[in-house]
Amino acid sequence: MSGDNPEPGHRPLPEDSMPTGGVNAPVPVAAEATPAVDPRLIVRQEGLKGYLIEFKRRLTSGELGSAPVVVALVVIWAVFGSLNSSFLSAQNLSNLSQQIVGTGMIALGVVFVLLLGEIDLSVGSVSGLCAAIFAVMNVTHGVNQWVALLSAIVGGALVGLVQGLFFAKVGVPAFVVTLAGNLGWNGLMLQILGASGTVNLSGKDIVSRLYSTIYGQQIAAYGLAAAGVVLFLGSSLLDTRRRRAAGVPYRTLTDVLVRTAALAVVGFLVAYTLNQYKGLPLALLVFVVFVVVLEFVLRRTPYGRKVFALGGNIEGARRAGINVDWVRITVFMICSTMAAIGGLFLAAQIQSASQTSGGGNLLMNAIAAAVIGGTSLFGGRGSTWSALLGALVIGSIQSGMNIEGLSNAIQFMITGAVLLAAVVIDSLARRTQKSAGRA
Amino acid sequence: MTGETVLALRGISKRFGAVQALTGIELEVRAGEVVALVGDNGAGKSTLVKTIAGVNQPDEGVIEWEGRPVAIHRPQDAQHLGIATVYQDLALCDNLDVVGNLFLGRELKQFGLVLDEVGMEKRSRQLLDSLSIRIPSVRIPIASLSGGQRQVVAIARALIGSPKVVILDEPTAALGVEQTAQVLDLVERLRDQRLGVILISHNMADVMAVADTVAVLRLGRNNGVFDKGSTNQEQIISAITGATDNAVTRRQARGEGDGR
Fold it and tell me: Does any domain span residue A136?
């Protein structure tokens, strides 16, 4: 593949031969003529070895990304799988893929708030409130299910607007605003649920069907995996072509193919497992679509760039002309809206909205999922995929413990320990990044 | 070498409560000229810069832009005129890469809402090349860059909006010898590109290295504008410290006929 490489400076330096002191060492004038890659830049080697070296370099400089959570997931699955073979059965894994959706959706919103370096402690209550809004409107008052669904989601957005206004405009710390919200919205939920305290869903409404629908045809899961792979390959090739035409560094064809192959392996493995049981759950499909779309918003739109900029340097963002208040308010709205959607999925899971909706350790699980997945508590670093991976870790622990028949007491302690481990890794990684000049 | 006057301050005064921070300041910046603004702590350098950049409004006096009096009420007004300011703290986002920082707040877009990463990367490289700025890669986070590289990125960012006057607030204060040289090279390149540069510095060596004109402030007043060709470091330092500020030296200066 070396033939199509545009970078004449494509000779990787061993890491320890980097000139450490001479960052501004005089550069040969000849290099000026060709705007080539700076010889000081470490360029990835060709082939598989290059990937390994690059990967090691990233890890040692503290750019852990999703590596710890993937390792954790492998360990958890290996442990529970060896304890009880039914853990890794297609049935259990399929159920798991549905069970994580509620928490995962809430964690998606939490990722946005964490990217600002803030926190939202009200997501649990908001999820319960919005589930109650839907259930009471649809079941008790017989309102059209779509109107009820829209009301619940808009309700979530309004909650975010109120909290965002207090945070951005009044200047109350987000921690306090959302802590007050945690109590207040829970109270509002109890008010809405009224005396009975529990409203059972009809089982035929859109929310229930969103959760219970499973596409049994083999083609559904495989087709989705194939579509994902083709989409990824297509966009990668298109990107490579544009970059090549513009004369900026691009991924080589091998690089693109290796990445596509990795995605294909994971995608088809998941599809195969799902098809071994009932098929592709609609809830999982909706969740993955949300993850992909929101990741696109974060990485590829000016709005996402603003969110990251605020997480990096608020004063810098303000001087660059970014409307800091507006971004903050909208991020809190996104978070509460995702909490509302997550709450609807959780209500569908138990087929009711009750006084305990959104309570318990849901709030902790949602925040833990985002952090365990690799989104930094310090702001400015993260991805929506961390919500999926983190929710999967927490869901796996719960599922495995349930199979083993362990009590809630043990579950809480273990989940707490995993969250602590994730935060410790985040803090240590940040320290390493600083010393490696990456934070 | 220097061209027409781009920016001129006429009798600028600024009070903060009981403090007269600036009194009747005169300053001219021509295209292709580096004006060093020097003075002791509290001389009013920062206040003057903030006045030009639109952070503060002057109580008296006129700011002229290309010969016309203008009102600069907000930082955006200054940017629209073509005045770019690089503050001492740089205000870069550590977690974004060089391209992200250069285009922060004015990203190029495709289809109206998607970032045009390729276009931005291409223009970033062109801009950095035109300034002979050497950054290992425009796709590494700012956190990986040295202090000098961050400074040149911050200056390059100021140039994205094609300004006519660039204000640099202590650009070399935190830098080592080589990095300082890099920044001073960049200042000279800005001059070659016919930009007016206002350079604030405490470092006499830097000032003497790149400035065409040295404007000295002392206690909020003009204390001499020196042409670099016909002055020396001692003269400037005595203007800064006020050694030229008493009747005896002023009399001597009149006698010799070369000072002010």
Answer: yes
Question: CA–CA separation, A57 vs A63, rounded Å?
Answer: 9
Instruction: List the single residue in B113, B118, B140 with the smallest CB-CB distance to A246.
Output: B118
Scan residues 316-335 of A and list those with Cβ closer than 8 Å to B.
Answer: 316-317, 319-322
Query: Is A189 domain-assigned?
Result: yes
Residue B15 near residue B46, CB atoms below 8 Å: no
CATH number of the domain encompassing residue A192: 1.10.3470
- pTM here is 0.84
- A431 interfacial to chain B (CB closer than 8 Å): no
* Cα of B226 to nearest chain A Cα, Å: 32
Q: Do A239 and B118 touch (CB under 8 A)?
A: yes
Question: Quick one: chain B helix, strand, coil %, rounded to 5?
Answer: 35, 25, 35
- Binary contact (A309, B100; C-beta < 8 A): yes
Q: Report all structural domains of chain B as residue ranges with CATH numbers, in order of start.
A: 5-90+165-256 (3.40.50.300)
Per-residue pLDDT of chain A (439 residues; tens, 9 = 90+): 333 444 433 334 333 333 333 333 333 333 333 444 555 555 555 556 767 777 777 777 666 667 788 888 999 999 999 998 899 999 999 999 999 999 999 999 999 999 999 999 999 999 999 999 999 999 999 999 999 999 999 999 999 999 999 999 999 999 999 999 999 999 999 999 988 788 998 888 888 888 888 888 888 999 999 999 999 999 999 999 998 888 888 888 888 999 999 999 999 999 999 999 989 999 999 999 999 999 999 999 999 999 999 999 998 888 888 889 999 999 999 999 999 999 999 999 999 999 888 888 899 999 999 998 889 888 888 999 999 999 999 999 999 998 988 888 888 888 888 888 888 888 887 777 777 655 5
Out of B141, B149, B182, closest to residue A438 by CB: B141
Give A273-303 as a DSSP string: HHHHTT-EEHHHHHHHHHHHHHHHHHHHSHH
Confirm whether A148 is domain-assigned. yes
Of B87, B94, B105, the CB nearest to A312: B94
- Which ranges of A116-217 would DSSP assign to H, the alpha helix? 123-135, 145-165, 174-193, 206-212
Three-state SS for A181? helix
CB contact under 8 A, A248 and B148: no
